[in-house]
Write a structure and sequence with these properties.
GO terms for molecular function: DNA binding. It is found in: Nucleus. Its main location: nucleus. By secondary structure, this protein is mainly α. It has two domains: about 55 residues, Transcription factor, MADS-box (SRF-like), CATH 3.40.1810; about 45 residues, no CATH class. The chain has a two-stranded antiparallel ribbon. The longest helix is centred in the first third of the chain and has 26 residues. It is extended. The relative contact order is 0.09.
Length: about 110
């Protein structure tokens, strides 16, 4: 028998929340590495803790080059356009690209 599903809600206990974050962060970083090795995929992963600490993984030599490559992709959808101000922020702070995408793209 497998494990039961975990109810997805905020963990109220600060210590338990931090422990869970650390374990899941490490698992996610491991999965990103495995995906890059097994499938020869270029993978970039950016994680910010609730304290603002940055954790990142990039399968290529440069996170910036991977983010620039991502930024150059044009999917042709009308809602993918960014304003001049947003483009300036994204070009100045490459890590902001992930934040922008995560806030503006819905995942089914």
């Amino acid at each position: 028998m497998g494990r039961g599903r975990v109810e997805l809600k905020r963990i109220e206990n600060k210590i338990n929340r931090q422990v869970t974050f650390a374990k899941r962060r490490n698992g996610l970083l491991k999965k990103a590495y495995e995906l890059s090795v097994l499938c020869d995929a270029e993978v970039a992963l950016i994680i910010f803790s609730n304290r603002g600490k940055l954790y990142e993984f990039c399968s290529s030599s440069s996170m910036l080059k991977t983010l620039e490559r991502y930024q150059k992709c044009n999917y042709g959808a009308p809602d993918t356009s960014v304003s001049t101000r947003e483009a300036l922020v994204l070009s100045t702070y490459p890590f902001a690209l992930f934040v922008y995408v995560s806030r503006n793209v819905s995942i089914p």
